[in-house]
Design goal:
By secondary structure, the chain is of the alpha+beta class. It contains three helices and four strands. The protein has a four-stranded mixed sheet with strand order 2-1-3-4. The structure holds FE2/S2 (inorganic) cluster.
Length: 101
């Protein structure tokens, strides 16, 4: 198994019963997910996987995304944030302005 260098988990607001409740879904995190997948393809980035998660319990900061295994929690209010995060990943840095603290 090839482990990705960056596994990006985008919150889909799923709860244990399968329902979507929470800020990330209401703020259209699924559109952000689609943009992220397209941008990764357009940039021909390798070693990056994308997945959807349940609520990560930081709803008030949402939409949120985690870069694993680095463990960087990001707020992703829009596609500009995703661009900045992907730029940082390409440059082997961190998008400090979008980090959750
Ligand atoms: S709904 Fe995304 S962190 Fe809770």
């Amino acid at each position: 198994m090839n482990k990705p260098a960056h596994h990006l988990f985008v919150c889909g607001s799923f709860r244990a019963n399968g329902e979507r409740q929470g800020v990330c879904h209401k703020k259209d995190s699924m559109s952000l997910l689609s943009y992220l997948q397209g941008e990764i393809q357009d940039r021909m980035l390798e070693g990056i996987e994308v997945a959807v998660t349940g609520c990560m319990n930081v709803c008030v900061k949402g939409p949120v995304m985690v870069d694993y295994p680095a463990g960087n929690y990001y707020r992703v209010p829009n596609t500009d944030a995703l661009d900045a995060i992907l730029d940082a990943i390409e440059g082997d840095t961190v998008a400090e302005e979008f980090l959750l603290t």
